[in-house]
Structure prediction request, 641 residues.
Amino acid sequence: MSVTVRNLTKRFTASAGSPRAPAVADASFEAPDGAITTLLGPSGSGKTTVLRAIAGLEQPDSGTILLDGVDCTAIPARRRGVGFVFQGYALFAHMSVRDNIAFGLQVRKMPRKEIAERVDELLSLVQLEGLGARYPKQLSGGQQQRVAFARALATRPRVLLLDEPFGALDAQVRVELRSWLQRLHAQTHVTTLLVTHDQEEALELSQHVVLMRAGRIEQVGTPHDLYDHPSTPFVASFIGGATVLRGRVEGTRAAIGPLSVAAPDGALEGAGLQAFVRPHDVRIARATDQSAVSLGKIEKLVRVGGFVKVELRLPSGEAMTVQMAKTELDALGVAEGDRVLVDLLAAKVFVEDYSI
Amino acid sequence: MRTHSAIAEPGAIRWTLTAFAVAFLALFVALPVASVFLQAFEHGPGAYLAALTDPEALSAIRLTLVAAALSVPLNTVFGVTAAWLIAKYDFAGRGVLLTLIDLPFAVSPVIAGLIFVLLFGAHGLLGPLLSRHEVRVIFAVPGIVLATTFVTFPFVVREVLPILESQGSDQEEAAVTLGASGLTVFFRVTLPRIKWGLLYGVILCNARAMGEFGAVSVVSGHIRGETNTMPLHVEILYNEYNFVGAFAVASLLALLALATLLAKRLLGDGSHGGQGQPGASQEAR
Prediction:
């Protein structure tokens, strides 16, 4: 089941009744059938509103939601056949785990025996066999999360919507559940939309990312597209982390101080530009000759496991972060305070629009 | 060696405070309640029973129960509906509704009674219309039920609203995405969530409904055997120097109040996870 969102706009009115900036403005994208699609963006970018609109929990001001090509904008939430996992799980506190999972089936008037079988099936799917009689409060956060998944999957939804599913968990559990979710998806193949502000989560879990900012969609593509071919400066800075350097177009090159990379085609001579440099797209070398042009000073070395973050100060005064393997740095034999040669392997260049 | 937590008081202060609290309670609560029962039994159990089985006393008891039996369900339905509306929706007039709900607590019960006299009395706004259809409200049972309902209506809303507001509507939304209809959501998700607060509100509402004096006194007309509730009956007997009768009925009222408080206590304990419902413990208070 594919999900298509077309020109979705949703505006919330402030309590005083005055209209605010729209939470979602003219958003369009498609989540392909059977895949995990992530809605990624900083908090307040409207991604949860999009998800709630797909579930029918929010009525859009304009635009349409299509499930498998069928317009279901007017269908009430309870008839849409979507599973929703809430950020705070929203488990029914007064019901046991079994009753939580069975709720959707009971509402559908499924025979008792079939419900019991289906609940057992789901308990084993989420690896909570034996915990059916517990109440949500007696479970850990990760277990509650899995009950929420089981409850949402019980009714065999056509689409599974996940709102920051791992947001409330600590880092280790989060990483575990991430790979658990991938296995779960491999078993069920249900079309999944996942909202997150964690780019690592988005890049790891999905083949399809919708990046949002301030209610608008910035870019849609594979993690690879977003990382290597960001379409806007925002995407470049949001995904993967980058040092932003200012420069100018000189011929076919983008000159950034003494450094340069290829300029995009058709850039006007002399135009200002922003270059986004990934931490691993910089090569440094020991400066044997102090007169070398491309010099940077190592201000700080931060060792994180097998990697080293090198904080450089360029002659222009700009700071730059470089990441390299620990072994690589050891081979260079440089220390804090040393001057090094800097070379840019690649950078994403955005020429500033200076139409006057 | 005892360990003291940072906020624990030294022994002497603790004992002094405890003694003060106990003495205060004894003087202002226990002693009066005890004296009610002592006075009631002054001339033995026979006189006590006679006072309670007096036709006028029985009529007063019956009317009190009728007024409570009508006003409590009315306020329960209204209270839950209003709390639900206020917690869930942001509509025009929400603030006004909230203020109106508190009004019965804010105005004196006597004024509440007078409002109904001004509305439904013979010379009131709706008086002529009512008398034309031979409907009696003031100095009759409907007036008493109306006044009781008015005075007790904030209890349920005020207990239920904070629970609904503090918990948000995530669970309801989850139920909807699972295919539940509005009624199913209410009975299977919302009601269990507000259960303890609702019961607590109903109990308080009931206690006040039975004990209300001021508003009821104004609309009742004190017709013996017809429009006297228990509190009004107590006053009449007392004014007639029939102390045994007055205190016998008063003791019954006190017993009702004690039973109510006991019920509340039992509910409170029951909700602290004792019944295999850990989910409810949070909602209990």
Notes: Chain A has nine helices and 20 strands. The interface with chain B takes residues 15, 55-57, 77-80, 82-84, 86, 88, 90-95, 103-104, 107-108, 135-138, 151-152, 154-155 of chain A (CB under 8 Å). The mean pLDDT of chain A is 87. Residues 71 and 231 of chain A are 30 Å apart (CA to CA).
